[in-house]
Amino acid sequence: MSEKITPTDEQLIAQFQGGNDTAFVELVDRYKDRLVNFVYRFLHDMTDAEDLVQETFLKVYKNKHAYREIAKFSTWIYTIAGNLARSELRKRKRRKTYTMSELSFDDNEFTPVDTGKDTEGIVFNTYAGQEIMKAIKQLAEPFKTIIILRDIQELSYEDISTILDIPMGTVKSRVNRARLKLQETLRYLKE
Amino acid sequence: MQNTECTFVCEQYTDYKENALSSETKLKVEKHLSLCATCSDIFQELNEVINNLHHFPKVTTSPDFTNNLMSRVDDLKHETTWHKIYKSTYTRVAGYAVAAGFLVALGLNIWLDPVSTINPQKVQGFAGDQNAPSPTIESLVVGADSASGGVGDTLQLQNNTIKATNQSMHLVSDSK
Ligand SMILES: [Zn+2]
Question: I need a labelling partner for A76 at 20 to 30 A (CA). Which of A15, A56, A67, A132 fits?
Answer without folding.
Answer: A132
